[in-house]
Amino acid sequence: MNEATPATQTTQITRRYDIISDEAEFWALQAEWDTLWSKATGYYYQSFSFCWLSWKLVAKPLGHRLRCIVCREDGQLVMIWPLETYRRWLWTYLVPLGPEGGDYSSVLVENSASSPAVIAGAWDAAQQHCGADFIRVQFVRDTLHLYRLATQARRVMFAKPHSASAVALRSESSWDQYCQTLGTLFGKRPGTFTKRLSKQGKVAVRIVDPVDESETVSIIAWMFRCKRLWSERVGKRNPWIDSAEFECFLGKLIYSPDVPSMARLIVVTVDETPVAGIIVSLGNPCASAIFAGYDPFYSKCCPGLIAVEQCVKWAFENGFDLDFGVGTERFKSYWSRGEASTAWTVQTINSQWGLLAIGGRGLLREFIARVKRLRHEGVGSPSTANITGS
């Protein structure tokens, strides 16, 4: 059943917010959602395909609950903010619906004079009607009204900035002219990254047929294995690297019988054996680089850079801009010509119960620090040792 916030009147327009928690009602939004997504030039992570697959393959299997806030004006769908809740110990967290990889947070709404008010109403609905003790929005751009609402909330627990890179390829007249503005990356220019790798065998680049599910699944599994080896080597571990749900989600994002495809898989091969791969979303008109992996055996030949170059070229040839997401990797600043923006991860405390958790956590840290100090001074008693040991 939907939960509804009170309707408001604005110059004879009835604005109504509903919180969709039923899967069937969520599915029924598809046609209207697709129309709004096209009109609002939404990102891939705002598409119905992405959100439906996120719910079915990641959030629901993990026991999370659906909380999709929608707004209608005179019955017409004008805003969608897909969210989910999950429990952690005794507390409920409200987060954007998604696999929590590296995707931004934003509200799907057509840009208009009323957009800030519509988004503010969605934020109020999230605060008041989703039963959350904490609200976390990940990677929200500081140019968005959602960022201002989150950072101006009554109790902000933390706000962490991240560098984000993108390139406006649609403004470039030709691929060659664009490449001439780039300089070098690790001493190499575009088009020359394959020279060293070609000494290992015949280098080829291709886009995997989206309907070839078996090859897609096989290559993505290989990319995850490569990513795990890389993360162990550099000491950079993320929970999604070991997530079977996220791995399955990426495959279905490329092809699913239930929803339109939202991504393509580009693979670099040596003698027909994969050495690098990258998943990139379709653009509307901005595409997004989603996930990449390469064989560490060929690391000196930089196969990952070849995959990225082909991803950028594919976006250019298809008339898309390209977003590289958050991160400070050199290839991102290179292809974006050093242009960067800031996205923030913000978490707010949304209830007295949540406030109690933070207060209790502070007291616990203070207690542990005191016990450690007493131990260091040599006056720790057996009773305190037992408490901290448990």
What report would you give on this structure?
This protein is 37% helix and 28% strand. It is of the alpha+beta class and 390 residues long. The chain folds into 2 domains: 3-153, 3-Layer(aba) Sandwich (Aminopeptidase); 172-338, Gcn5-related N-acetyltransferase (GNAT) (Aminopeptidase, 3-Layer(aba) Sandwich), CATH 3.40.630.30. A hairpin with a 4-residue loop joins strand 12 (273-281) and strand 13. The model is unreliable at 1-5 and 379-390 (pLDDT under 50).
Write a compact overview of the structure shown.
The protein is 37% helix and 28% strand.
Biggest pleated sheet: 15 strands, mixed
SSE order:
EEEHHHEEEEHEHEHHEHHEEEHEHEHH
CATH fold type of the largest domain = Aminopeptidase
How large a portion of the residues is in β-strands, by DSSP E? 25-35%
CATH-level-4 superfamily name of the largest domain: Gcn5-related N-acetyltransferase (GNAT)
**Separation, N- and C-terminal Cα atoms:** 43 Å
Task: Note poorly predicted spans.
Answer: 1-5, 379-390
**Averaged pLDDT, please?**
91
Helix-residue proportion: 25-40%
**Any idea what the shape is?**
globular
Q: Could you tell me the radius of gyration in angstroms?
A: 24 Å
Number of strands: 15
CATH class of the largest domain: Alpha Beta
Q: What's the helix count?
A: 13
Q: Structural class of the secondary structure composition?
A: alpha+beta
Supply the number of structural domains: 2
- The CATH architecture of the largest domain would be 3-Layer(aba) Sandwich
